[in-house]
């Protein structure tokens, strides 16, 4: 579950102003006025379209987005924090005790009654033992060593628009693991309506061109492209 906590006000105007000032002799205030006046947003979006085509993406770094994520497994959060051009704050397992068994169960297991019973039993046993360790005075930072990857976590992360595009490309791809892929899709749905010119065509490589995964391709580029374009359409009207 992800929500947008905060973001740069008027991200498209901020980006366009930063981009224009590189090549303009006008004062910044005049450039800004141009983008905030009548048709300003339209002008900003036109400029961003050109920037995206040219690949001069550093100006996209002027717009930042902060997300709050809950009920994510530690397995997925470990993948998320591999993205280095970002800031993270994650609930500590040293200072916060995992007293309640809160965990993520993948559909592949949940959809099988027998396997999901075994999964739930084992996880509940682990959390019981964890609780026993805590009762016995074992510090939380040590008791957590027995907790599973499925354990839920919560975190906040901030990425700029350039890194978000990179994140969506890698983690929105069918090759990415399902939980972080779902997070990528949910993030896309949140940011697209706020800055459509920036996130137009965001997502895996197949949204804009050919699949980049070679032998690992899912083999469904047209279907995936349609899915992302449809997500953008729905998000724009949400
Ligand atoms: C499908 C999939 C499978 C994966 N499997 C594995 C796996 O088996 N094992 C594993 O360890 N990881 C795995 N990863 C993680 C992957 O290797 C990356 O660590 C992760 O996706 C972060 O991406 P990144 O390094 O491109 O970019 P980020 O950390 O998001 O950085 C963005 C970009 O900034 C630049 N950059 C950042 N830091 C540096 C730097 N120090 N030097 C130069 N340029 C830099 C690069 O251009 C980089 O692409 C997998 C990822 C995916 C999507």
Can you put this structure into words, describing what you see?
The protein is of the alpha+beta class and 238 residues long. The chain has two domains: 171 residues, Gyrase A, domain 2 (2-Layer Sandwich), CATH 3.30.1360; 53 residues, no CATH class. It is 50% helix and 13% strand. It contains eleven helices and four strands; from the N terminus they run E-H-H-H-E-H-E-H-H-H-E-H-H-H-H. It has a four-stranded antiparallel β-sheet. It is elongated and about 70 Å long. The model has no long low-confidence stretch (mean pLDDT 96). The site of flavin-adenine dinucleotide has 10 residues, from helix 8.
Compile the SSE list and pairings.
Layout: E1 2-7, H1 11-22, H2 28-36, H3 40-54, E2 64-73, H4 74-80, E3 86-90, H5 107-110, H6 113-135, H7 140-143, E4 152-160, H8 161-171, H9 178-191, H10 196-199, H11 221-236
Helix pairs in contact: 1-2, 1-3, 2-3, 9-11
Bound molecules: flavin-adenine dinucleotide.
The site of flavin-adenine dinucleotide (FAD) has 10 residues, from helix 8.
């Amino acid at each position: 579950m992800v929500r947008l906590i905060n973001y740069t006000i008027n991200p498209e105007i901020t980006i366009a102003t930063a981009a224009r000032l590189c090549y303009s002799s006008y004062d910044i205030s005049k450039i800004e006025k141009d983008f905030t006046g009548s048709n300003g947003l339209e002008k900003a979006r036109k400029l961003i379209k050109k920037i995206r085509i040219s690949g001069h993406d550093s100006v996209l770094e002027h717009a930042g987005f902060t997300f709050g994520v809950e009920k994510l497994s530690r397995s997925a959060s470990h993948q998320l924090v591999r993205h280095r051009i970002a800031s993270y704050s994650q609930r500590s397992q040293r200072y916060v005790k995992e007293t309640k068994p809160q965990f993520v169960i993948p559909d592949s297991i949940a959809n099988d009654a027998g396997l999901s019973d075994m999964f739930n039993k084992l996880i509940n046993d682990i959390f019981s033992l964890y609780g026993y360790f805590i009762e016995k005075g074992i510090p939380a930072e040590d008791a957590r060593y027995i907790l599973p990857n499925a354990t839920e976590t919560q975190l906040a992360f901030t990425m700029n628009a350039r890194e978000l595009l990179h994140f969506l490309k890698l983690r929105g791809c069918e090759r990415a693991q399902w939980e972080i892929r779902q997070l990528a899709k949910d993030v896309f749905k949140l940011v697209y309506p706020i800055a459509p010119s920036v996130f137009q065509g965001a997502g895996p490589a197949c949204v804009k061109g050919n699949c980049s995964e070679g032998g690992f391709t899912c083999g469904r580029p047209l279907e995936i492209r349609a899915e992302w374009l449809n997500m953008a359409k729905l998000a724009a009207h949400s």
